[in-house]
Known about the structure:
- By secondary structure, the chain is mainly beta.
- It has helices at 5-16, 30-33, 250-264, 322-326, 339-346, 368-371; strands at 39-45, 52-58, 75-80, 85-92, 95-98, 107-113, 119-122, 125-126, 133-140, 144-152, 160-172, 179-182, 185-188, 197-203, 208-211, 219-229, 238-247, 281-283, 291-292, 295-297, 300-308, 332-334, 352-357, 363-367.
- The chain has a domain at 1-127 and 249-297.
- The longest helix has 15 residues, at 250-264.
Amino acid sequence: MVSVNKYHLVIRLASCLLIYCSCKESYMPPAVKNNPGFLVVDGLLTSAPDSTYITLTRTRNISDSSPAPAETHALVTIESESAGTEVLLEIRPGIYGSLLLPDSSKKYRLNIITASGEKYQSDFVPFKITPAIDSLNWTEDSSQVAIRVSSYDPSGNTQYYRWAYEEAWKYHTYYQTNFNYINDTPVVRGRSNLIYYCWSNSNSADIQVGSTSGLSQDLISNIVFHHVSKQTEKIFLEYSILAKQYALTKDQFEYWTNLKKTTEDLGTLFDAQPAQSGGNIHCISNPSETVLGWVGASSITRKRLFITRQDLSSYGYSPYFLPCQLSPELVQVINPNDKELARQYLETPNHLFTFLYEANGGYYIAPNFCADCREHGGTTTKPDFWR
Length: 387
């Protein structure tokens, strides 16, 4: 699902449209100075074994770079049209979830009562069954890799689709380090403590939708829903992407399409306005209050793809550890008996700590970012799905 930050961007854009520059001074509208505090609802009602998660936050000032404030201690329930309800528990601040077993023959809506007593409600939405992803493949050109998805609904009931992804990649640092320094003594790290290889990950940062409503068949054929630049480290060693597919209603598709235009087509003041992307959630205790977001309901289908550097015809990435490779003076050789000198290096913040064995009995001490892949933001924990 799209990041909650997309909704905050909509509010920021709405404010930016009111700002204009003159030769004397700039106008700062009240929306910039005053936090509108609109409720943002981000989530999908889905079926087990997936969990339903609803995230509630409030919008903030355009000048405020702090995280969006979470709407905590709310009562969040899912109501079926047959009047049955189920409570979503607050798993983390502002995040409410549960395992649900929705029925595709019924409609559902979300009810929210905040800690301050405000009441919100979504429209009733049908629970849609998402067809399987038939294939997930890729093509390349000189600058990027295009990830493509295909799907088919022989019943013709889907017609409107959305895709999201979770991507992960393996990378390494420059120096292979086999030693650590514990209690003034170099010790072998052991295979479980090596810090040469790491894994990083990220989730969808954009909106990708598609429709077959104008086609003779409900067939998605090799649609590109994500690009991976060859200027990044992602496929320098090995890359994996998990594609997630959602079935949409027509009005939900239109909402996501308008939101995509609002957040991505930033050309002029006359582009699509945020007001055109009205959601399906309303404040029933104050009907004039603006609420952002759309609650849909569908199952999720998935497919995973792996790509390695050897699979590609070309690649243009300059490794982050290039300074280590070009500047051998960053590495010092220290006799293990010179404990005071070793301690001086080790106590330098974020600089030196890693030892490499040398035949003459000394050890190389290298900067952290040259020998510890975790310094680049990843983790040494191999993902469970990694092949």
